[in-house]
Amino acid sequence: QKARIGVTGLAVMGRNLARNLARHGHPVAVHNRTSARTKALVEEFGGEGTFLPAETPERFVESLERPRRLVVMVKAGGPTDAVIDEFAPLLEPGDMIVDGGNANFADTRRREADLRERGIHFVGTGISGGEEGALHGPSIMPGGSAESYEALGPLLEDISAKVDGTPCCVHVGPDGAGHFVKMVHNGIEYADMQLIAESYDLLRHAAGLAPAEIAEVFRTWNTGRLESYLIEITAEVLAHTDASTGRPFVDVVLDQAEQKGTGRWTVQTALDLGVPVGGIAEAVFARSVSGHAALREAARGLPGPSRTAVADSGFADAVEKALYASKIVAYAQGFHEIQAGSAEYGWNIDLGAMATIWRGGCIIRARFLDRIRAAYEADPETPTLLTDDHFAEAVGDAQDAWREVVATAARLGVPAPGFSTALAYYDSLRADRLPAALTQGQRDFFGAHTYRRTDRDGSFHTLWGGDRTEVGA
Ligand code: 6PG
């Protein structure tokens, strides 16, 4: 018997993905650099389906039906290249290598081009949902050729999460499109998490609530428009008590957030594409600030406001509004980045389809994403989600509370970079005139960088050092 698909790299994500495939009735070849893991998988979970363990790359490749579908689940970067170098020579034209790691899309583009020359399809695939998602149904974002999707799509759709019967898997676009979209997914994930963290911090330090009480607030929010996986687990984490000290778990965890790189890439890429993603950037920077222990220690004694907590019973509702509005901004920015990346690389990404496959399985899954799907269905060319009828109304309703929350944060000295930047973005977009005109004047003054006028075409320069007449540039 041959395997329909193979998975190499059997750490927790690879192992769970292989089990998911087997549980869906797909005979799956399994391989790991050290074969103890392969053995352990088959011993522990062999009853879940048909596993074909292979000790060597050669045996692994031989055990696959053609065209071969080989899923690589190793650490992004060097290890991925090492595995490709090992397996590609064993493959034949028409075979497929699927990279399910969190690869940088630029690496995926390079690998795809290299392997295409050798007739091998390289399918950089975003997979979201963590360990549980990999096992029970992740959200899957495959890039690569349309031809490879014909052979892979049905399998991936089969093991993906489903929402209203629709698989959370779609062909995103050629070469690096899948990993690009996964990268932005993670950037949005960072922003979502940061906004939730700020909400918690405000409820704790501005409203004076205890973690267990805040957990209840999040539980309530999770029954409304904010319903999402991240809100749900936030309540769980906040309600948890540390066993060894009896204190709230959140109080015994070191307050330095780590990151593996996808959020940073989202921002770096946005800078290259010229897309403003302040919400995502502030989320990355907030993690960075938290990690600068020595800097924070040095600054700890700096003066702050004479704090008085707000006792207002409506404050939690105001925070809910600020959170919803800021979340809309973060998604609007993320989708803008996907739109720009798609245009830059000619991927032709269907934005509504991305919202559709993020409704289930992935870390940012949320009721809200169905609204985004609907927004793109109503107008696939919408320049920003913020002008969609539903979102414009929601932000319009929320804005007074949103401003109050940002003002309260500033007044009480509670850092709220995510809420603040989101509000500034909203106000920048809706502004009639921006002070960028002054910036242009300064640039022209010190560097003759020229400016354009509102009333005439062309570029102009004022003779600042002379008689200040204006000349055409
Ligand atoms: C997912 C997640 C996952 C990512 C973690 C950790 O979609 O399942 O995005 O791919 O590895 O979120 O990321 P950080 O370590 O950078 O927080």
From TrEMBL:
<feature type="binding site">
    <location>
        <position position="449"/>
    </location>
    <ligand>
        <name>substrate</name>
    </ligand>
</feature>
<dbReference type="InterPro" id="IPR006183">
    <property type="entry name" value="Pgluconate_DH"/>
</dbReference>
<feature type="active site" description="Proton donor">
    <location>
        <position position="189"/>
    </location>
</feature>
<dbReference type="InterPro" id="IPR036291">
    <property type="entry name" value="NAD(P)-bd_dom_sf"/>
</dbReference>
<dbReference type="GO" id="GO:0006098">
    <property type="term" value="P:pentose-phosphate shunt"/>
</dbReference>
<feature type="binding site" description="in other chain">
    <location>
        <begin position="128"/>
        <end position="130"/>
    </location>
    <ligand>
        <name>substrate</name>
    </ligand>
</feature>
<keyword id="KW-0521">NADP</keyword>
<dbReference type="GO" id="GO:0019521">
    <property type="term" value="P:D-gluconate metabolic process"/>
</dbReference>
<feature type="binding site">
    <location>
        <position position="102"/>
    </location>
    <ligand>
        <name>NADP(+)</name>
    </ligand>
</feature>
<feature type="binding site" description="in other chain">
    <location>
        <position position="287"/>
    </location>
    <ligand>
        <name>substrate</name>
    </ligand>
</feature>
<dbReference type="Pfam" id="PF03446">
    <property type="entry name" value="NAD_binding_2"/>
</dbReference>
<dbReference type="GO" id="GO:0004616">
    <property type="term" value="F:phosphogluconate dehydrogenase (decarboxylating) activity"/>
</dbReference>
<protein>
    <recommendedName>
        <fullName>6-phosphogluconate dehydrogenase, decarboxylating</fullName>
        <ecNumber>1.1.1.44</ecNumber>
    </recommendedName>
</protein>
<dbReference type="InterPro" id="IPR006184">
    <property type="entry name" value="6PGdom_BS"/>
</dbReference>
<dbReference type="Pfam" id="PF00393">
    <property type="entry name" value="6PGD"/>
</dbReference>
<comment type="similarity">
    <text>Belongs to the 6-phosphogluconate dehydrogenase family.</text>
</comment>
<feature type="binding site" description="in other chain">
    <location>
        <begin position="185"/>
        <end position="186"/>
    </location>
    <ligand>
        <name>substrate</name>
    </ligand>
</feature>
<feature type="domain" description="6-phosphogluconate dehydrogenase C-terminal">
    <location>
        <begin position="178"/>
        <end position="465"/>
    </location>
</feature>
<feature type="binding site">
    <location>
        <begin position="32"/>
        <end position="34"/>
    </location>
    <ligand>
        <name>NADP(+)</name>
    </ligand>
</feature>
<dbReference type="InterPro" id="IPR006114">
    <property type="entry name" value="6PGDH_C"/>
</dbReference>
<feature type="binding site" description="in other chain">
    <location>
        <position position="260"/>
    </location>
    <ligand>
        <name>substrate</name>
    </ligand>
</feature>
<dbReference type="InterPro" id="IPR008927">
    <property type="entry name" value="6-PGluconate_DH-like_C_sf"/>
</dbReference>
<feature type="binding site">
    <location>
        <position position="443"/>
    </location>
    <ligand>
        <name>substrate</name>
    </ligand>
</feature>
<keyword id="KW-0311">Gluconate utilization</keyword>
<dbReference type="InterPro" id="IPR013328">
    <property type="entry name" value="6PGD_dom2"/>
</dbReference>
<keyword id="KW-0560">Oxidoreductase</keyword>
<feature type="active site" description="Proton acceptor">
    <location>
        <position position="182"/>
    </location>
</feature>
<feature type="binding site" description="in other chain">
    <location>
        <position position="102"/>
    </location>
    <ligand>
        <name>substrate</name>
    </ligand>
</feature>
<comment type="subunit">
    <text>Homodimer.</text>
</comment>
<comment type="function">
    <text>Catalyzes the oxidative decarboxylation of 6-phosphogluconate to ribulose 5-phosphate and CO(2), with concomitant reduction of NADP to NADPH.</text>
</comment>
<comment type="pathway">
    <text>Carbohydrate degradation; pentose phosphate pathway; D-ribulose 5-phosphate from D-glucose 6-phosphate (oxidative stage): step 3/3.</text>
</comment>
<feature type="binding site">
    <location>
        <begin position="74"/>
        <end position="76"/>
    </location>
    <ligand>
        <name>NADP(+)</name>
    </ligand>
</feature>
<dbReference type="InterPro" id="IPR006113">
    <property type="entry name" value="6PGDH_Gnd/GntZ"/>
</dbReference>
<feature type="binding site" description="in other chain">
    <location>
        <position position="190"/>
    </location>
    <ligand>
        <name>substrate</name>
    </ligand>
</feature>
<dbReference type="GO" id="GO:0050661">
    <property type="term" value="F:NADP binding"/>
</dbReference>
<keyword id="KW-0570">Pentose shunt</keyword>
<feature type="binding site">
    <location>
        <begin position="9"/>
        <end position="14"/>
    </location>
    <ligand>
        <name>NADP(+)</name>
    </ligand>
</feature>
<dbReference type="InterPro" id="IPR006115">
    <property type="entry name" value="6PGDH_NADP-bd"/>
</dbReference>
